[in-house]
Amino acid sequence: MKKIAVTILMLGSLVFAVYAFGKGNDQVLAKTGADLFATKGCTACHTIGKGKLVGPDLKGVTKTRTTAWLKNWLKNTNQMLQTDKTAKELEKEYGVPMPQQSLNNEEINALIAYFKASDQGKK
């Protein structure tokens, strides 16, 4: 009986550690995304919660676009401008196409984590 109690306690601690590490990892990823947003020049065209510039204000973007769409948009901007209805509408609305960013998957994931954190009021 004692072994079972110890095993349950250890499993509970492990589950908590995994949960806590995952939360911290999300915060680190969002911070990396915030840094990329500033250093990659995104702020020249976009704000988050401060209104439109050359491109749209990205406040709430993770609530209006799926993660899959955002990943595709950030990875394959030029292709989406040719094939995606929403991308075409954005280009028409703003009059300027978003340039291809040449981001790797880790950078894209970090930017999306930053957008999600911002949308949850955690930026």
Overall description:
With 123 residues, the chain is mainly alpha-helical. The chain has a single domain (2-119), classed as Cytochrome c-like domain (Cytochrome Bc1 Complex, Chain D, domain 2, Orthogonal Bundle), CATH 1.10.760. The chain has helices at 2-39, 61-64, 67-75, 77-83, 85-94, 105-119. Helix 3 (67-75) packs across helix 6. 15% of the residues are buried. Mean pLDDT is 85; it is low at 5-23.
CATH class: Mainly Alpha
Principal-axis shape equals globular
Tell me the total number of β-strands.
0
Largest sheet: none
Please tell me the CATH architecture by its name. Orthogonal Bundle
* Poorly predicted residue ranges: 5-23
The share of residues in extended strands comes to under 5%
Give helix and strand order, one letter per element, not per position.
HHHHHH
Mean pLDDT rating: 85
SS class? mainly alpha
Looking at this structure, what is the CATH superfamily? Answer: Cytochrome c-like domain
Percent in helix: 55-70%
Number of domains: 1
